[in-house]
Amino acid sequence: MNQLTLIENEIPVKVYQKLREKTGLSPKTREAAEKGLQHSVYSLLVKDDEKPIGMGRIVGDGGCHCQVVDICVMPDYQGKGIGKIIMEKIMNFIDTELPESCYISLIADGPANHLYAKFGFKEVMPESRGMYYRVQ
């Protein structure tokens, strides 16, 4: 790794789409990405020199309910602490900018739950059950 740059609240649409694709997240259309990125409560883009290598976002209403989404790191950079950096910045925003009663949720893919647990996230089962619906 060379020089890491952390850019808050500025993820270009094409970069967002490419990072999702290259890290195994589901693809998003340009229309969806443009609209979604505009409604971020907070976002972080990580670059190695000028190369985008990771990102993360918070979406929601900024008061009552927010969700941590789009946490991803390019495969060549995984296991090097980039995900931890992203989560530290997201948690700093949560702790300093969101109201105390804001409910923060996330969906952990694969073994990512271990990273999120280090930041205080807990399983919701059996009290709650995560569900989803995708527009077709």
How is this structure best described in words?
This protein is α+β, with helices and mostly antiparallel strands and 136 residues long. It has a single domain (4-117), classed as 3-Layer(aba) Sandwich (Aminopeptidase). The protein is 29% helix and 27% strand. The chain has four helices and five strands. Strands 1-2-3-4-5 form a five-stranded mixed beta sheet, sandwiched between helices. Helix 1 (13-22) packs across helix 2 (30-38). The longest helix is centred in the middle third of the chain and has 16 residues, at 82-97. It is globular and about 45 Å long.
Distinctive features:
136 residues, alpha+beta, Aminopeptidase, five-stranded mixed sheet, 4 helices, 5 strands, 29% helix, globular
Give me a quick take on this structure.
This protein is an alpha+beta fold and 136 residues long. It contains four helices and five strands.
Give the SSE layout.
Elements: E1 4-8, H1 13-22, H2 30-38, E2 40-48, E3 51-60, E4 65-73, H3 82-97, E5 103-106, H4 113-117
Parallel strand pairs: 4-5
Antiparallel strand pairs: 1-2, 2-3, 3-4
Looking at the overall shape, the CATH architecture is 3-Layer(aba) Sandwich
Strand runs, count: 5
- Radius of gyration (Å): 15 Å
Total number of helices = 4
Mean pLDDT: 95
Strand-pairing-aware structural class: alpha+beta
CATH topology: Aminopeptidase
Catalogue the unreliable spans. Answer: none
